[in-house]
Amino acid sequence: MIVTYRNNRFMPAVLIACCLWGIYYLVDVPVDGTVLPAWKPGNYHSDVQPAASADSTSTWSSPIPTPTPQENTASNQDEESTSADKGAKPQSHGGLLPEDVLLVMKTGSTSMWKRLLVHLTTSLAPERIPLENSVIYSDGAMTIGSFQIIDVLANTTAAIKESHPDFDVYRQQPFYDQHNAYVEAAGVEGDNYGPPGGWIVDKYKFVPLMQHAGINHPKAKWYIYMEDDTYLFLPNILAYLSKYDHTQAHYLGSFAGKSDIIFAHGGAGFAVSRGAWEKSFGQNANLAKEYEQYTADHCCGDQVLGHALNKYGVKFGENNGDEKFTWGFNPVVHWRFGFEKWNFCSPLLSWHKVHNRDVARYYDLEKYWNVTEKGPLTHRDFYLALIKPDLEKRAEWWDNMAEAYQVSSGNKAWPPTPKNGKHDEEKWKAAWESADACEEACVSWDKCVQWNWVEDLCKMDERLFMGQGYAPAAPERKTALKRTSGWLTERVDEWTC
Ligand SMILES: *[C@@H]1O[C@H](CO)[C@@H](O)[C@H](O)[C@H]1NC(C)=O
Ligand SMILES: *[C@@H]1O[C@H](CO)[C@@H](O)[C@H](O)[C@H]1NC(C)=O
User: Keywords in UniProt for this one (predicted)?
Assistant: First the structure.
């Protein structure tokens, strides 16, 4: 955020919000293992809003503009399907059934009571995927109903577990249980925040969990990974994966890059084929142990796993590891996602940083979606079902995260002008004057679908974000200026598929 004299009054509020947010996350949140998914020409991504940058800035941080879409090569990819896929079972999701895959859930002892439970009746519900086709990995063992949670760090080298500071939380957590303290944040007497640092130990889980999954579920054609704050639209993912030969090495998901490794972003969910597993883990029964030091030296578990797979020639990407990927595995949650003309019609594969209420609603949408009748659930379908009905023409105390073009009293003489489409110069320059003027400027630009205005600042965008507001009783209404947001949904209605 650019600090000028005009928003000095916001800074105390922003700093306080950042601190509160920081405390909450440092205490509470296991690492996503996420990094900035840097965009390179030729990589296709539904959205390059980096989860990691959202982690390190305020929740209102501006999303990074999305790349220009390029020709989707997904249609060029090898359409092979194995003979085993054909005929034997009823056709579903392009031939791939939940019985054919292993759905791998990663959670942590400091987050499971807050995030995992909703998945047991949705993502991992036996009506959706047989119990034996899912597995839950954590940093402690536990039984919840018919679900067995596996301590995936059980075989980590004893010396590391006993003395490495990254494992403080692993060593400390059992004492909470032993002292009858509940790390649940349930708002019930006896609650405790638990030991800090769940996110540090989290990165050590990735390689061991993939090793364990492959050894214990050798029949799975795909290992489909998710975290406890991910939602995977499983029918769409099965349809997507069915286009690939699982006996070949495939490593698919959302593009991310760090420490010279291109890998699948963990929080967005990803898939590793059995072929890829055999080519890597299958060649080295000691892979998890061998990666302990590399893990200690690097930040993110998804990058560590990518490195391990790379070492055995398994590369990320849709065409034999070419780093290309289809839109759909999203490293952000739906209300921070920029819906655009070019991503609107692609099937929706995942959301990340989801809350329990999101999971409940997504699952309901997925469950009652008739694929035969309507085809795969697209971003557009999602928008029509769960976003559009809640958008008003104009909402006060709401930030819809429009940010592509900003006109303020400071730049009114030479404001940035849209690269695409036509706009009215006069209205554009006056956009900062009021909410009405801002709306008029947006209407005058034929590509604009949303705007927001506060004090003397008008922001407009050709992407549609839902954003978030302050409820009437929210204390922010006493500490911030009112921001007004508006959407031109009738323009989005024209983005047909
Ligand atoms: C740990 O090792 C034992 C013995 O080899 C094995 O049965 C178990 O599955 C391993 N656990 C994990 C999480 O890898
Ligand atoms: C889905 O739609 C098809 C075609 O209209 C119909 O035959 C089928 O019964 C529907 N399935 C469900 C579960 O409603």
Answer: Glycosyltransferase, Membrane, Nucleotide-binding, Signal-anchor, Transferase, Transmembrane, Transmembrane helix
